[in-house]
Structure formats: structure tokens, C-alpha cells
């Protein structure tokens, strides 16, 4: 296992479409996933996509703590290989995001509130989950990395984009009531 170097916004590997994984059971893929998990834990982050560690393959790892989820349940450590997202509602909602590839910054990003996603696991089997709220947001953020999209490219109001340290100064009347303020989670 190894902690991998994280690419930052502007690096070409983050701007390209990543390639599908041909064999999810390949030990080299399992080794990469293990390194991604270690890198995510070290950062720390709640999600990481392979292009963020300079590997242009369609792989995401995530682990979402229960306190961030509507149902209070942890989303366990999961590897998504070749994931596909289907929105289950037209409804979108804005909330704060951060990204390990855009360090120290945060911004408000619209995302679908309710999705289904399917992927191959490292065992090669396909699995499917429904996700709402923050869980759905994390999956959309990570899967965007597989298509060369970084969250600022999804923002509709760049006045909410800035350094976490500066944005957390009160008052933030132009942006959001202070009670809505929370630091962007790095993903
Ligand atoms: Ni990210």
C-alpha cells in the first residue's frame, strides 16, 4: 500500500475522460484501490476518484459518515468500478463542496437530490444502490471526476466560490445565513 500524490485542478489528468476498467478482478486494480483508500484516509477525504491520483481509469472510492446522511447510516467503504448514475428525480439542491484537487477552497454546487448508481465491485459483480442528499452528492462529485469535471465547473454562482478560511468569516450575508455555513468536505 502507498499514499499517492493527488493531482490539483489544472493538471491534464483531471480534465480528460477516464477509461473503463476492463477487468475489475485484476490484482493491479485491487492494488490501485487499496492505495486510493489509503490516500483518501490520509488526506483525509470522504471520496476519491482515480484521475485524482493520476490514473485515468473509471474507479471511485468513498466512505460517507452517517452523521452526514439523511438516515444517519454510514455508507461503508466502497469501491465503484465503471460507475453509472441515473437521476431518480429532476430535483436539484445546492450545497457546499470541497475537493482534494482544489485544496482549501469551497463553493456551492447544484446536484440531483435522489439518484441510483450501479458499478462493478472488485469481485467483478455488479451492484446497485439508491442515494439521497449528501450521499448522492458525493457520488455525483466523484463520478464527475471520471468525465473531467471538477465541481467549480458545475457552479452557477461563483460568488460562493472561495477559500474556506475566508468564507468562514462572519458575516456572510451576501452568500448564506451563517447558520447554513459549513466547511466544504474534501472529496
Ligand atoms: Ni473532488
Entry keywords:
187 residues, alpha+beta, Peptide Deformylase, five-stranded antiparallel beta sheet, three-stranded antiparallel beta sheet, binds nickel (II) ion
What is the CATH topology of the domain at 12-93 and 107-149?
Peptide Deformylase
Strand order of the largest sheet: 1-2-3-6-7
Radius of gyration: 16 Å
Query: How does the major sheet shape up?
Result: 5 strands, antiparallel
Strand content: 25-35%
Q: pLDDT under 50 segments (min length 5)?
A: 173-184
Task: Compute the number of helices.
Answer: 3
Helix content: 10-25%
Strand-and-helix sequence, N→C? HEEEEEEEHEH
Shape, principal axes of CA atoms: globular
Small molecules in complex: nickel (II) ion
CATH superfamily of the domain at 12-93 and 107-149: Peptide deformylase
Name the CATH architecture of the domain at 12-93 and 107-149. Answer: Alpha-Beta Complex
Please, what is the average pLDDT?
Answer: 92
What class would the helix/strand composition place it in?
Answer: alpha+beta
Q: CATH class of the domain at 12-93 and 107-149, please?
A: Alpha Beta
First-last Cα distance: 20 Å
Overall strand count? 8
Explain how this protein is built.
- By secondary structure, this protein is α+β, with helices and mostly antiparallel strands.
- The chain has a domain at 12-93 and 107-149: Peptide Deformylase (Alpha-Beta Complex).
- It has 3 helices and 8 strands.
- The protein has helices at residues 27-42, 133-145, 164-167, and strands at residues 47-49, 59-64, 75-87, 92-99, 102-112, 114-120, 126-132, 162-163.
- The strands form 2 sheets. The chain has a 5-stranded antiparallel sheet. Strands 4-5-8 form a 3-stranded antiparallel sheet.
- A hairpin with a 2-residue loop joins strand 4 and strand 5.
- The relative contact order is 0.19.
- The structure holds nickel (II) ion.
- Nickel (II) ion is lined by residues 99-101, 141, 145, 187.
